[in-house]
Amino acid sequence: MSKNFQSLSIIILGLCILGGSWFISQSLIPNQEIEIKTQQEEQFRYEFLSPNENNIIIFDKQTGDYWRKFIASNEGPSNWEKQDTPVSTISE
Length: 92
Fold this sequence. Notes:
Elements: H1 2-43, E1 46-52, E2 55-60, E3 66-70, E4 81-83
Antiparallel strand pairs: 1-2, 2-3, 3-4
């Protein structure tokens, strides 16, 4: 009886370890999917626009902000300037 009980205990312990490992691995999968989605969203967050040869615009799709830089030599500011969004927002 003692050998049967010990064998049964080992089998139950092995099943518990396998079940616990499977449960932990399944709980980690959704976190990986969320992390991949976040990385993909961040990858396409900014858009580079060049409306003419004198201006460069970087548009932040998430916040709606954009930065403009005048690139002609000795004409106008050559620093990045944060601008208000050109897209009208709906106010409540």
